[in-house]
Amino acid sequence: MKAKEVHHVPLSAPALRGVKAKSDTPGIVATAHGFRSSFRDWASEHGYARDLAERALPHTVANKVEAAYHRTNLLDQRRPMMEAWAEHVLSLES
């Protein structure tokens, strides 16, 4: 991580299976940055709050005052968004 901080990601069981399956397969065509960018676009298109999507990535907060109050990772609120993202990504395989 560029921010040098631990980042927790609430992945569903199907998402974890998908990640494992993809990591075991040679010739993956997605890059980490491209996958992150796709997630960010998808989150915006599906009406998820900007702050929620940004914390899912996790982007650091440049504004020092805002960063001082940025104390929660919103894990419980991110969980349904990540479940929906997993469903979307896994639906693309069929």
Can you tag this structure with a few keywords?
94 residues; 5 helices; mainly alpha
Quaternary class: single chain
* Regions with little confidence, pLDDT below 50 for 5+ residues: none
**Overall outline:** globular
List SSEs in N-to-C order: HHHHH
Strand content: under 5%
Mean pLDDT: 80
What is the CA–CA distance across the termini? 32 Å
Helix content class: 55-70%
Largest sheet: none
Enumerate how many helices there are, as a single number.
5
Q: How many beta strands in the DSSP annotation? A: 0
What structural class do the secondary elements suggest? mainly alpha
| CA-based gyration radius | 14 Å
Q: How would you sum up this structure, described in words?
A:
57% of the residues lie in helices and 0% in strands. With 94 residues, the protein is an all-alpha fold. The chain has a domain at 31-91. Helix 3 (50-56) packs across helix 5 (75-91). The radius of gyration is 14 Å and the shape is globular. The termini are far apart. The mean pLDDT is 80.
Structure in a nutshell:
The radius of gyration is 14 Å and the shape is globular.
How are the secondary structure elements laid out?
Layout: H1 13-23, H2 32-45, H3 50-56, H4 64-68, H5 75-91
Protein name: Phage integrase
InterPro entries: DNA_brk_join_enz (IPR011010), Phage_Integrase (IPR050808)
GO molecular function, one term: DNA binding
